[in-house]
Amino acid sequence: MAVLRASPLLLPQPLSPSSSRSSRCPTCCGVTAAVASRQAPSRTGVHGGAGGGSKKTLLTNRRRPGAAGAPSCLPATEDGVAAAGAEREEEDGYLAREAGWGVRQMGRVGEEMRRVAQVQAEAFHVPVALFNDFFFDFFKAEVLSALIYRVRNSPPDRYACLVAEEAEPTTQLSQAPYEKIVGIVDCTVQNEEDIIKHLQGADEYLYVSGIAVLPSFRRRKVGTALLKACEALGLQWRHKFMVLRAYEDDDGARGLYAKAGYRVVSRDPDWVTWVGRRRRVVMIKELPIHNNQIEQQ
Question: Where is this region: Disordered (predicted)?
């Protein structure tokens, strides 16, 4: 099974961009990495595009469901939403479980956030010939800085970082909670016009990005667990559509997404290949909570 790895969201660069050795890492789409100025080779997994996720999206779209002027998904009954939440969120706080992995929202504490940055850095760092340790530490610091920015500047119903961890009791005895984290994904409410035009009946959507799994835990269904948790969060937040990006030539990742119910709605234009970029596809999934028949059951 292809392992999911997508790029972190495009964010304002919180660290100084003045370093002559820093360049935008194409696999991270917006997190500044101290790597040589070349396109990073694709490794196993999925690198989805960053899409939106800009400062404007994080800071201006603070409307909440039900508030005056708030964007509306298709109506969902209170009973229907409550039932979906009860089915999808375990008593232990997990949004989803799969193959021994549990996925929950990241705790906003220092050690756990540093662990999240470590996982993302290990997943996306491109080794360089000289001073690799230095570049890795610099990259990890920028990933952590970007994470802190998102947490501080995003309303709790518009951004969430989900973490996958070993959920079996036998694996937890000798580990601190944050040490069990092996996978990460970002979920952000967005309203990019180029995507909205493909989403009938909605003016916002839940964008999935930044999927990262530690190298030693790949091909063990961690990515599948993360995807299921994203869907559960989308149901809780009453969004009709899930959206993600994948590289057009990554058949393994696209096959996995298609199996999960995602379909391709658009592609990057041909000219992106002329500047050395890989074409991406936008894939969407419609969530069933907004189906009136399901709500009435």
Answer: 1-25, 39-89
